[in-house]
Amino acid sequence: MRSVVDPARLDRMFFALADENRRAMLERLSAGQASVSELADPLHIALPSAVKHLAVLEQGGLVRSQKSGRVRTYQVEPGAFEAMESWVARHKTMLNAQFDALDAYLTGQKGKRA
Amino acid sequence: MTKHIPSTHTDFVIEREFAATPEAVFQAWADPEAKRAWSDCHPEHTTEYRLDFRPHGHESHRVVYPDGKVQDIEKVFFDIATGRRIVFAYDIRLDGRSLSVSLVTVEFFASQRGTRMVYTEQLAYLDGHEDRAQRLRGTEESLDRLGLLISQNGEAS
Predict the structure, then answer these.
(1) CATH class for the domain made up of B8-126
(2) Do the chains contact at A10 and B37, CB–CB below 8 Å?
(3) In chain B, what are the domain boundaries?
(4) Number of independent structural domains in chain A
(5) Hey, which residues 60-89 in chain B have their CB within 8 Å of chain A?
(6) Region A24-48 average pLDDT
(7) Which of A11, A30, A88, A109 to probe by mutation at the B interface, max B CB count within 10 Å?
(8) Residues A30 and A66 placed together within one structural domain of the fold
(9) Considering only CB atoms, which chain B residues are within 8 Å of A23?
(10) In this structure, are A47 and A72 located in the same domain?
């Protein structure tokens, strides 16, 4: 194999994305870099809470941070959405949607037999 | 000639619990009508669907999107153990170009709720097939859908 994506890395990435505030931060950062307070304010969350969310995004490989003076700014990790991650994310989303439909189908079958 | 972009590989597992017997869940994969009912995300755009559920049998699914793009999914079953296991390989082609090729094992285990289904996919992603803009747009869409699914599924892991 020429290159392999670590499944644990994908897991950390999916975990980082599994939160509304973190997705909102990522969306804001996709428009350009921002400081912690610039990210926390529109979400009406406290700074320590924003710092925790940003740490999860950083561990997930989705953002990177830089400290200049007393201000830490965040930006989207340029290589975060490599082709395959993006493809696998879409693919897994589709499979999960199918399995939701399978669940609904099986529930419906049960109703028919009863 | 286009430049050779190395293929990349990964694997992932999706586990789901269903309130139905392993036989019933297996049957939903085996029966063409049932399979199509839950697995076709674009029934309005599907132009071809066939399922020949037996070892070395094929499942073929063609979708023609409103923008004219044609997606083909071709699947070959290798191992079928009734009520227990299905092993298949498949590829996804967009306008004739192969995007990815996968080997999948689906296993059904009796559980307290009914069935625990374990879906394991090993995937080879071929020559980076999309330009960057398409990719980013796709990622945004998938994030939206992912968010929707996660909010629907609550804290399910």
Answers:
(1) alpha beta
(2) no
(3) 8-126, 129-157
(4) 2
(5) none
(6) 90
(7) A88
(8) yes
(9) 143, 147
(10) yes
